[in-house]
Amino acid sequence: MMRLAPTLLGFAGLLAASATFALAGTAGPIEESDVTTHRSQGEVRTIEGARARLSRTAGGIFVALETAGLTPGHAYTLLLAVMNDPGACESTPCAPSDVVGRTAEVKADIVGDADGVIVGEDGMARFASFLPAGALPKAWFGNGLTNPEGAEVHLVVNDHGPFLPERGAEMLTTYRGGCADESVPGAFPDTAKADGAPGPNTCRMVQVAIFAPANM
Question: What is the dihedral sign for C-alpha 63, 139, 160, 47?
Fold first, then answer.
């Protein structure tokens, strides 16, 4: 997908899809979460005016994230992390060390390219995605989404740096398209490092929204 942000399609798509499942009697309520800066960027602060939403069904998870404060002209992707057994995490909410370091225990998986946008002059972006239950194509660990109604879900905004037209498709549809090797966390698996061709840009995880299951 290649598109300019912002649009209203993220929230509209989430609400429309949720309404469809509600009519079928299978949708849960729409959960909301603040969007904060990512801990890797220093002191954590809430992004003013930003909001994330999630709707769970037995068949999967719908997510949408609307945010601000991004760098105009940069490409961004949405990374989706799921912890199917959040009760096995060593902290609440689950920490990156749980997701990447204790993947088997918490039955975690990550999709690094759930949506992609190029940010306009206002610094705003809207992302939306659906994660189906079961195996997840291009997921990093092969655990899939086995517990959509009880999983902890993290939405992470990943900055790929200035948009490079010659690498445009990869920068919007892969985890590390356009990113220099040194800007990809060393703890990430080879599947993440191979998802997209290296490039000259410094990539960073800049914002996050976290959804804990209702029973946690």
Answer: positive
8: which 2 tokens? Answer: 């209203």
Q: pLDDT digit string (tens) for 192-210? A: 999 999 999 999 999 999 9
Site of tokens 């225990």: 105
Q: How far apart are CA 101 and CA 139, in angstroms?
A: 16
Measured CA to CA, the distance from residue 111 to residue 130 in angstroms comes to 11
Q: Tell how strand 108-119 and strand 4-5 pair up.
A: parallel
Provide the β-strand partners of residue 214: none
pLDDT > 70 fraction of the chain, expressed in percent and rounded: 86
Backbone phi, psi, residue 116, to 5°:
-145, 145
Q: Is 142 exposed, middle or buried (CB count within 10 Å of its CB: 0-12, 13-18, 19+)?
A: exposed
Give the bridge partners for 127, in sequence order. Answer: 65
